[in-house]
Design goal:
- The complex is a heterodimer.
- Chain A has helices at 2-27, 50-76, 87-93, 102-131, 139-159, 182-195, 202-225, 240-252, 276-282, 324-335, 347-360, 364-376, 389-400, 407-413, 426-429, 439-444; strands at residues 39-40, 79-81, 258-261, 286-288, 342-346.
- By secondary structure, chain A is mainly alpha-helical.
- Chain A has a two-stranded antiparallel sheet. Chain A has a two-stranded antiparallel sheet with strand order 3-5.
- In chain A, α5 (139-159) packs antiparallel against α6 and α6 (182-195) runs antiparallel to α7.
- Chain A is globular, with a radius of gyration of 27 Å.
- By secondary structure, chain B is mainly beta.
- Helices cover 8% and strands 47% of the residues of chain B.
- In chain B, the strands form eleven sheets. Chain B has a 22-stranded antiparallel beta barrel.
- In chain B, a hairpin with a 5-residue loop joins β2 and β3.
- In chain B, α7 (817-824) crosses α10 and α9 (905-916) runs antiparallel to α10.
- The longest helix of chain B has 15 residues, at 929-943.
- The chains are: A mainly alpha, B mainly beta.
- Chains A and B meet through α1, β1, α2, α3 and α4 of A and β27, β28, β29, β33 and β34 of B.
Amino acid sequence: MKSLRTLKTFNTVALTALIIVGMSVSGCDPLKVNNPNNLVESDLNNPAAAKPMVNGEEASVTRAINNMLPPYSVASGELINIGSREAWDELEYGNLDDPNNEFSDAAFPYMGEARWWSNDVIQRLEAFKKNGTLKSGDEPELARAYLYGGIIYSTIADMFQNFVFSDKSTPGKPIGDNNMVKLYDDAIGYINKGLAINSINDNLKTALLAMRARAYYSKALWQKDHASPVDTMNPLINDANAVADAKAALNLMSGDYYYKLNITPSTPGILGGNGLGGQVNVNLYLRISGTYIVPSDNGKTVKDLSSPSTSISMTDPIDSIPDPVLYNRIKTFTESQQYDDIIVTSKREMLLILAESDLAQSDMNGFTTEINKLRALNNLTPYSGQIPATKLLEYERRVNLFLQGRLLNDEYRFDEKSKEWKSNSTAVTKPGTFFPITITERRANPYLSE
Amino acid sequence: MPLMAYSQGKIKGTVSDAHTGETLPGVDLILEGTHVGSITNADGNYIIKNVDPGSYVLKASYVGYKSFEQKITVKNEKTVTVNVKLSQSAINLNQVVVNGEGGPVQIKKLGNSIGMVDMKKTEFLPVDNFSNLIQGRVPGVVGLKVGGLTGAGSRIRIRGSASLSQNNEPVVYIDGVRVDNGGGFGGDVSAGGGGTPSRLDDINPEDIARVEILKGAAAATLYGTEASNGVIEIFTKKGAVGPPVFNFKIQQGPVNYPHRIKSAVGYATSQAQADTMSHYFGGSVKPYQLVSHNFANDLMTTGFSQSYTASVSGGTPGITYFTDARLYKVNGPFGGNNISYPVGTGPKANDIDQKVYLNANVNIFPTDNLQFRVTSGYTTSSLSTIDNSNNIYAVLADAEFSQPQRVSYNDRNGSPAFLTLAEATQQQTNQKVQNFNGSLGINYRPLNNLTLDATFGIDAVNQNSTHYRPFGWNINHFASLDPQGDKSFSNLSHKNYTAEIKATLDNQISEDIKSTFILGGQENMKSNELYTGTGRNFPGPGLEVIGAAAEKTLSETYSKDVNVGTFAQEQIGFRDYLFTTIGARLDANSAFGSKFHAVLYPKASVSYNPSGRTRWQPIGPISSLLLRASIGQSGLQPGAFDALTTYAPITSDQGPGIVPSNLGNPDLKPEVSTEWETGMDIGLFNDLIAFKGTYWHRTVKNVLVPRQFVVSGGFRSTQLSNIGQMKAQGVELSLNGTVIKKKSMSLHLYANGAYLWQQVTSLGGAPPIKIGGSYPRYRNFIMQGYSPGVMFGAELKQVQPGYLPVDFNGDGKPDSKAQVMSYLKTLNASNASLPTSSNVIMIENGLNSYLGKPTPDWTGAFGGSMNYKNFTLETNFEFKTGHYYVTDLTSAFRTSNPVIGRNTPQSAKVERDYVTGGVNGNYQPQNNANVRYQALKDWLYKDLAMAPFSGLNEVKKADFIRWRELSLTYRIPRRILKYYGISKMSLTAAARNLALFTKFPGVDPEVNAVGNDAGNNLTNNFNVGNPVFNWPIPRTILFTVKLTI
């Protein structure tokens, strides 16, 4: 009798416990926990997400370039290592083909993200458009998405020796060194689609045209840098499409036009881990090379930005004054701290494209006209043959495209060497070498070896 | 005890040592099967009042003695006198433990080992926080120090690592309530990786009665998901029936850093530079003369530790209570006053750890079969620390960067980069924490053989941290980071709710067979809300609120994890010497993927206690014997939202945006750890010596691997997948006993050791995982076929005798001595610089050379205690040894880095000799190629390190023995004290971290770049063996007065 009672009591207790657990598991479902921190896949199917996705694409492209510019600029000699992180040294020496380099490796995932996300956003917005669900007024957002796509594809082609295109967790095969030039076609294709959207305003149209001019120009430049050997004998570019777009863009540009990807204190997520301004202006890991600036006494910063003479060491080859273009750029860059905007294209770059085209065709009048338009932006003495035109072109590209990810490509074709490069570095022994697919991708991708 | 009017009896007596006759205070006595008991007073006397008439079994237990049991009969209004003589014993198989079995159970019934820390054994040791309490007491339980900064806690590892991607900290309960086992600062706030507090140090060690440790899945199955790294259950003091007992404890003493940091050495290369050095360092310095100064030692001072504790405990048969209050404060040994500051400025950073602990526990016994337990602990803490560790703005890092040749008026430590030492001391990291842990427990025994027990509790932590650089903090105008100041904050609210209900049914199935069946359910819900942000650029001095900053960022994150489980266990005992147990737990968790619902963790164990048989005869010296074996499973669930494909918010110049975040995996499920262990407990020589040995083996399947998928696929972050497997095994041994036992003197010795082997047996096709991402200096990897955290990196190319692994002539081959000399002869003091380029220096196999593992084969401790009359001397040593390697990153920076390094006495000389080709007595360069050759060899084989040669010359053998604790206690005789109405009084002088014996060349092999809350779990788990500008573990001397009234 007693054991029966015991069993009954026990069963009651056990049942109570099970009911509590059972309610927890099923009825009340305490296991259902919402994530308020992020969006999930289904949220992106909402056409209202179109603009945020394009904004995100812009952010990812900006972040990628902001993190790729430091290794590029150290490799080109625009920046030098003054801090504690030795991996900058190898880039400074001209060894930029090491997949283990922490800075190119840290930047690579951002480039991969920006590339994939650009494609994905474009596809999603195209789907909205096709379904007729793209919100009224959001068509320019699609054009903007194409612009960012064009920027990232072109930048990848500019800076990498090889690249790989994967989709989420599905690895892709590397496209091969020789196929990298096709990325410019992809970039141009995107921009063409952007320009084909009627509702874009002039600002966006200007940026798209200028970017397409840059992409055509860069494609031609790529072919010189990647010739075997590098085509240093005929380094000048004359690309009709680039010229046409540059002219069209210039017609829409006013003042000293720049198209920038902006970084501000309200966009901290864009900075990434090793952003350009942060590395140079905040943490003092890097400094602008003494080729360009007068360093401070302790060697850590620019000496005195109050005037060009106390800050700029590079002098204009005609006026023999501290270069005002560099001064303006470096002053803005330094004062921006880590929030320096990424310059994508500019009126100056368009003028340089036109000037170079003329020079390549031995049209000295044309060259002089265009280069003097450029020099006039800083009230510099017009060019009239004081120095060889090619040298002036090279110089003007160096100062007007400073810290924009162009110099290394120019150094190869003009057969110029950063004074920091070691004689047995890859930049010297294998000119035309750009950044590799880095170790993080290599370890994860079965089509690549470490 | 029913409050009834009829007559009741009493039990009284004295408890004494059976061998010496010495009376024993503090012995627990209880009538078996009731809540009625008492505790002996300072004279060893006890009395149990209001005992209902009847037959009972009186039980007495005391640390270091065999349990005592005697049947007694109590009659109306009679007093039964039972004088108890306890025999000293190093082994006590009848000791009752609570952890892991769903209810109280004797050790002899367990198939698994269980670690125990009894506070009575640490009473006089210099233990002032939980991290120190847990350190080195139990084989297989390791405390990983982050560094020697005041307030820094330890990470705890039990039997190595049972997970790759999930937190490897054990689960911690206080009186049945799950508590926050994290730490750090959180969000935007960091002092650099070190100085991180552990929330477990919010537990007042003075409140703790004992700690039980389940070391793995075999023992912790009933705890279910999250228990595979072991479970630590803390039992707080509850008081005992008797008059109020007042305890006071005062503890004070100095704290100092050992001087283990090498001086900074440099040399001038010009007369002007030499003159400047003469001005600041004295003497007449010449170019190329090595000048030394220890800037690190300048930062040190003598700190002061103090704590004050008052408690009262006691009770009546219907209620017992314990309450205490403790103030603990350490003003640490960082000073900063002995360095130069601009006029009107001085150090602002501090290292102060202050805590106030309040605790109140009450046990209420309305009836014989009903008990209510109410516990509450509240801790408020305030921590100030300095920027530290692997952080370019760290105070000690800057001191160690210092280069005498760069000293100037505005830079008195010759900082080569980032900031000056004086500026570094302007940064302040502070944390204020309120931590509450409370529970309500109900124990009801409706029938003699049925017990119902329920525990409901909450652990709530509110943690506010700030990092602050005031306006104009760059007082030497050197630092470029936010000269107008900045401030970061994080406000972390952590809550953990625990509810557990269980029923225990005892059945005497036959005369020989007894069954104990347990059925229960548990729900645990933990949530974290984090608000964090940063403000930069204040408009003026004195502003300390983020609202005043020109630039502000803010973020908020929330996570919630719910685990619901039910468990059942059946234990069959045969004649009280053979026990088998089977059980299981079924868990569901909110973090499981949508395609996975619940997981079942089974367990089984057997224990055989031949010495418990009535016909047992000792076998030679073996007086007690327990053989045991167990197997069980436990798990670890993924993170709260790891299963979801997510897109994260990001803001662009054009407005709010979205970027890819988490790939997602709907199949995510817990990783399952299967552990079996077997072992024995042996009592020798009438149990005066005890040996305990355990072998264990663990296989973790479905290991959650943070797989790095192709980053070209758009998602940069890793994604968890259940694709891995890990194996581990180990041996845990302990030996302790009484070597000498005389009337006025006794000597007890102990030693324990734990062997650990662990390996990642499969990554399921995922690529190797590098800890620290692309940051090349941490060389720890998760790699298939190796111990987790294994280190890989560069080693120099092997060359024939007469050759060096350099290629100056560019032929792609190592140069012979003649070739090297040919190159060196081209150098002079103006163009010579140590080679650092990968174009010149030749290494083997890229960065893929095996360099060692950071977890030692063996960890353990040894020591003992000696009692002589009223004196007690106690000491213990800890050791780590066996294939134990640590990356001496601090030295790597200081010997190799061209900007911030080459300033140790040895490396500065190497560089000076290479540059000059040697100097004469007047320090003039001699341009001797032979000197350069020797310097080059030293450079290559001793100093060269870091990228692109990461790992080279960095990883060193780290075996050590640390003299951890020493104490001398004098107990003032009772005959003196009783005149003052004092029961007990003792005076103790103790020291902690007295000495370190090691060949490791760095500051301290025990410290590490990161500690609690190091970022992601992968880093938290496996960024080990990486000391980087960490402060050494300080030496603490404590003088203690304890008083009982």
